Amino acid sequence: MARYVIGRVLQFVLTAALASVVVFVLMQVLPGNAAQVALGTSATPEAVAALEAEYGLDRPRIVQYLSWIGGVLTGDFGTSYVTKAPISPVIFNSIQVTLIVVLASMALALAVAVPLGTAAAVLHNRPTGVIISGASQIGIAIPNFLAAIILVMVFSLGLGWFPSSGWQAPIEGFGGFLERLVLPVTALALVQAAILTRYVRSAVLEVMREDFLRTARAKGLPAGRALVRHGLRNAAIPVVTVAGVQLATLLIGAVVIEQVFVLPGMGTELVRAVSNRDLVTVQGIVMVLVVLVLLLNLIVDLLYSVLDPRVRRAA
């Protein structure tokens, strides 16, 4: 088991190191000069060269990479060429907003999808199961941004129950924080819940046809208890895989939701940095997003060993 965990952690570290090289190279090959962008088109070549020397842009690429990745490992993402402000506070503040919204959305989606998907599987040949399956298909077809707009029109502009935009940190007032969290979390969770409901339904249906479940029922266990005790854990393995993928998708898809609800998250900062051609900020944000996605994959791999004894035995 320890060997399995160490192997997955080493794979995470090596993949993150390779990803950092790819991110750095991609930022370097983009057209344009960071010093020129910072000074404007009217800057003289002497001024551009002086700023390049100040920022260290005249150093060899390998030296620039080692300097950047060394700072990243210590939590220092450098200084913006455009705003002249440190990038680390921007990233650390925005990532908190994004993670709160994304994790709350996934928790809500799972809370809805697991019981609904299980009910759709158990009642698959009854009207209730058909209705749940049809509703999940409709939910999959609705984009996140459209769900967000509909929620704003109904619950903010129409009923006036929740604010339509803005953010309030929990330390500034937990009630206001929750009010501003409800709509973006619901907008993200609706589509994810529909997707996960379909996967839960398929996984539970497959488990219900397995021999071990029929054996449990033949020994006298009621169908519901047999499913809970022996079936759901086996059905959770493919669902965990899909949930990990969907959580990574939420991190990227939150960009649109943050724009709709004017949330100061990673997506908003990324869009702002791209529009200002602040490439060093873009580089830092993209690297953080990549590491988060890789970390999610690591967590999913480790959960396999918890849910599936065969993985532990193989390790």
UniProtKB/TrEMBL annotation:
Keyword terms: Cell membrane, Membrane, Transmembrane, Transmembrane helix, Transport
Chief location: membrane
InterPro entries according to UniProt: BPD_transp_1_N, MetI-like, MetI-like_sf
Residues that span the membrane, as ranges: 12-30, 99-123, 135-161, 181-200, 235-262, 282-304
Record has Nuclease as a keyword: no
Domain (ABC transmembrane type-1): residue spans on this chain: 95-304
Pfam families on file: BPD_transp_1, BPD_transp_1_N
Keyword Phosphoprotein part of the UniProt annotation: no
Topology in membrane: Multi-pass membrane protein
SUPFAM superfamilies documented for this protein: MetI-like
Cell location: Cell membrane
Family: Belongs to the binding-protein-dependent transport system permease family.
Protein name: ABC transporter permease
Organism: Brevibacterium daeguense
